[in-house]
Amino acid sequence: MTNPERDPGEQVLTCGEDVTVEVLTPREVPLGGPRAMTVRRTLPARDRSLIGAWCFVDHYGPDPVTETGGMNVPPHPHIGLQTVSWLFTGEVEHRDSTGVHAMVRPGEFNLMTAGRGISHSEVSTPETEILHGVQMWVALPADSKDVEPGFEHYVPEPVRGEGWEARVFVGSLLGESSPVRTFTPLLGAELLLDAESALVLDLDPTYEHGLLLDAGTLTVGDEDVEPGEMLYLGTGHHRITLSAGQAVRLVLIGGPPFGEQILMWWNFVGRTQEEVVAAREEWQQALYRDGQLVDDSTRVVPGRFGVVPDQHLPPIPAPVMPGVRLRPRS
């Protein structure tokens, strides 16, 4: 998914000072168009930018596609990150410049590695009536940020206990481990709890964690979490108890504090302004000829971002860079 903000802010992100427990409230961001589908963004937040290497979390739906237009994201570029798609309801067609054509379906994990550069599109299918899920980004560490682009698909087997069900799509939890390759230690799982049930989770105390509540009523220790909110837990937590009032669905993410500064602007994760500017310029040069936006099929120099095959939607031009040198923000 692309960052749809017209004037995306530059952010220098760090793991920051550890906070034991903190509730992150989402802000609404329209994806664009006259019937814009709105997403709820919890990362990056004003006071918390990363949870492990997770640097971007959008939560959307349930959206009636006939009213919102669904997801219709034309080809756009990424560098320095991995994208994670996880659906609760609906179906999305993924195409990227490495030639991958894949369907994103509920309970099926899709991980795209941008590395040195990739472009992709995401479009909800005509059969989709309700679209509901999360889109997340993972920052690549400095020694891996320029790896070759790639794509992985994984369908985790559900793990069940009394009053709960889990699907572990990244890392290890509840005795289950995902084979998906990541470049820093990560955790990602969907958890379902029946009404009036509880689940005790053993956590890696070297990780920080985020619990994004999609639906239901949830209490973690003494903290109540509302749907759409994310509960942040700093390092040092060995065990937590999740208590559901109404039936709960949540996404759990985590990882050790990232320990690096990153610069995130539009769809790029880099380390310097020069790196981000160069990526933007290369994308623009691939899109335009004689000042005119050209169709994929007539582009002469696809560059490091490549061309998304069999995609009729014209690619998204990059926003204008600010007129002053970007500066770090806390």
Mind explaining what this structure looks like?
This protein is mainly beta. It has a single domain (11-15, 26-255), classed as Jelly Rolls (Sandwich), CATH 2.60.120. Helices cover 6% and strands 45% of the residues. The chain contains two helices and 29 strands. The protein has helices at 65-68, 273-287; strands at residues 11-13, 21-24, 27-30, 38-43, 54-64, 72-78, 81-89, 92-96, 101-104, 109-113, 118-124, 130-139, 150-154, 159-161, 164-170, 172-173, 176-177, 187-193, 198-202, 208-215, 218-220, 223-225, 230-233, 239-244, 248-255, 262-265, 268-270, 288-289, 292-293. The longest helix is centred in the C-terminal third of the chain and has 15 residues, at 273-287. The radius of gyration is 19 Å and the shape is globular.
Rounded radius of gyration (Å):
19 Å
Number of domains: 1
CATH topology: Jelly Rolls
Per DSSP E runs of 2 or more residues, the count of β-strands stands at 29
* Spatial shape: globular
CATH class: Mainly Beta
Strand order across the largest sheet: 2-23-20-25-18-15-14
Q: Please, what is the average pLDDT?
A: 89
Straight-line N-to-C gap: 25 Å
Give me the CATH architecture, please.
Sandwich
CATH superfamily heading: Jelly Rolls
The chain-level structural class is mainly beta
Q: Can you count the helices?
A: 2
Domain Pirin N-terminal: 39-138
Family: Belongs to the pirin family.
InterPro entries: Pirin, Pirin_C_dom, Pirin_N_dom, RmlC-like_jellyroll, RmlC_Cupin_sf
Organism: Nocardioides daphniae
